Amino acid sequence: MLVSSFAFGQVCLNFHRIGDCRKDIKHTFRYYSQSRSDLIKYGHSAEYNLIFYGNKEYIVSFCTLKNFYPVHFKLVDELTEQVLYDNKEDDYLESIGFAVENTKMIMIEVEILAYKASDNEIEEQYPCLGMFIQFRESETKESQD
Asked: Which of helix, strand or coil describes residue 108?
């Protein structure tokens, strides 16, 4: 069992590059190296502490196995602990685009809700969770007159 969990964990390492997250790829954006994938059990959450640099636009997308959607995520300002965004408010959208003026530490809390998974799937599987992040320089430039 340990070997099969380890092997599946290795496959899961690049899930964000091969899973449904790819449908959100925008060619004007570049891949952000803080993207990642993990095994996650239903009923548990994952937390990622990330740096988002100023004067950039980001797209953060989440993906998992088909029956384990939707993915619930929140963006939380690390400094103030204020919830900046909760996708529950938008019927669990799988991606969000935003711009950052000043560099921020943001914690992303993620859980899978598995609305279509059977009790057996929930009990036996640790599905992959992918977080695919893209960025580009912000198009808004301040002009000084």
From this structure: strand
Instruction: Tell me the C-alpha to C-alpha distance, in Å, between residue 44 and each of 40, 65, 127, 143.
Output: 7, 16, 12, 47
Which CATH number is 65's domain given? 2.60.120.380
144 assigned to some structural domain: no
| H or E element in which residue 9 lies | helix 2-12
Give per-residue pLDDT as tens, 20-72: 888 888 999 999 999 999 999 999 999 999 999 999 999 999 999 999 999 99
Distances (CA, A) of 16 to 9, 63, 79, 101: 13, 7, 27, 26
Which structural domain range is residue 66 located in?
A: 2-137
In the chain, the number of structural domains is 1
The number of beta carbons lying within 10 Å of the beta carbon of residue 90 is: 10
In sequence order, the 6+-apart residues with CB closer than 8 A to the CB of 7 are none
* Bridge partners (DSSP) listed for residue 56: 100, 137
